[in-house]
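Model: Ready when you are.
Researcher: Fold this.
Model:
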Amino acid sequence: MEKQPHLLLWKAVFVLIMIGLGFGIYAGSKSIDYTWRWERIPQYIINTEATTVRSPFDGSATIEKGNKLVVTSDYGDDPLVIEKFDNLLVSNGDLVFEGDPLVEVENWNIGPLTWGLVMTLQLSVVSLVFAVVIGLFAGLARISTNPALRYLSVTYIELIRGTPLLVQIFIFYFFIGTVLDLDRFTAGVAALSVFTGAYIAEIVRSGIQSISPGQMEAARSLGMNYVQAMVNVILPQAFKRTLPPMAGQFINLIKDSSLVSVISITDLTKAGREVVSSTFAPFEVWFAVALMYLVLTGALSWAIQRLEKRLSASD
């Protein structure tokens, strides 16, 4: 009970710090005479504006029973029949010309920021699958007794970890992509997978080496070969130990995927730049983009924590 007042005090300090940060951002925007326009952002996430259907030809409009609009062409084309709409913009018997608005249909459309979020998810998930495969094999080769495999793994890991991801993306897209005729998405996935795989390889290596050598000896004494002992005994234990750093690497992959925007992949970052150019509201857009990235990484972090708890309960 004595600790309770201290906990409340420190929680109050945290709240005050967050309020201070928010006030600092607001005061900073006022110092540069910036006008916040948050009302412009929602339409770029979910667009609820009505879609206007226009006449494809010159003709006349007829409203039939059942609230059905029929536009008859003056040139003998097949009539345009519209049965579902929300707002009628013409009257019965009106003459219409090509391009004239006929009806409005209210619907929900995904905005460019949401499409960018979907592309970021696709890049991250596909890259993650390949990165885990690459990292697992490279990590096993790293501790292999075969010198060729070990040297190849060390060369790959040091080469990839020692060069910037942005440079690797350019190499994959402009050089390897040109030679192998890869599209932007494939080149971006390849660069992210190879880059992340190098870090996962070191995580796998450290996880395996953290297991007592006696575990392998005991498994071999039971008649298992090396592969069986590794799959059934060593890797399951190493997986539990490497889950926290692996989760951190997965989160880094989501954030690193923003760099593929330099090769014109419309991910969340590139979508944000395009929205900024059309809204002239850079602060609002980039805060919204940061929040969307935070939702992705926060959801992944929560899922990993749940998995850790389940694995610890199974011990």
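Researcher: Now this one.
Model:
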Amino acid sequence: MRIGTLKESYVADAALFDSRTQHAWLAIAAVLLVLFPFIASDYWLYLACLVAINVASATGLNILTGYTGLVSLGQAAFMGLGAYTVAILQTRYGTPMLLNLLAGGVVAMLGGIIVGIPSLRVKGLYLAIATIAASFIAHFLFANFEITGGTAGLSLSPARVLGMDLDTSFRLYWLIVPVTVLMLLGAANLFRTRIGRAFIAIRDRDISAEVLGIALLRYKLLSFGLSSFYAGIAGGLWAYFFRVVTPESFPLSMSIFFLAAIIVGGMGSILGGILGAVFMTMVPELLKLLVDLLPGGASLAVFLSPVRLVIFGALIIGFLVFEPLGLAEMWRRMRRFFHLWPFRN
């Protein structure tokens, strides 16, 4: 177990990963991520891509809700803005994939800034209701504008990189996972800067933060913008992954899904966003696999489906009751108890 780390320079003190142990575990994680697509089936590659997309979006929501303390139920709408931007640019103009993703993030960011304007006057449940209203407005726009394809939506051709179509889960894995890793590193670095510390100060006590000279409206809008940018990138990846974008692709329930993910995983923690997204995505699939393994499970799947939902809901409630700080805190306790991986978050 690492007792302490001697810092001999400012650069060493500001390093994101400050020990050889962390570097070793990161190298192992990188090797596993590289090897995974070569040994996994198409089904598990599909789930890996879906988990990575959900991790990216949950991380964005964690910036806003977990670190800044602003409750939002509009994450799905911002993902929709990113997805539709990518779909429109891809189908109408044939612009490059990376440009489409960046444009999707920027459009979603602008939408998030507009939605975040009321955050100076309202917060808590009132702000959540305002973001719900934004979700309904976005759904109306998606369903009634000709450029978005109306209720039928838009279909995309596969993304292309260096003349290669990314038309399989194996190929898309090499797009989605690296982009998600970069977004996680960006979020982790954000909270080592003045901007990230301002977000945390607003979350802890916004009046005190304003007294200290933090411009509340500016930083709240910046938090909304960054969170929506992450959602827009995730939405763009989602569009390339499923290659069909419709108004029903981003319902309010998806926003609730991401809010539940960061609560279960642990708000105000990058690790919490990762664990929460993995939990919310994988547990229903694992329960489905367990049902299929039961004698006659395939024929009883229709009848056991509600049971799976009840079990899934019970697990979420159990985490909220017995570990309100989320899976990230549970991991930290296990690490301290067993002297496990000294991964600092």
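Researcher: Key takeaway?
Model: The CA atoms of residues 68 and 199 lie 5 Å apart.
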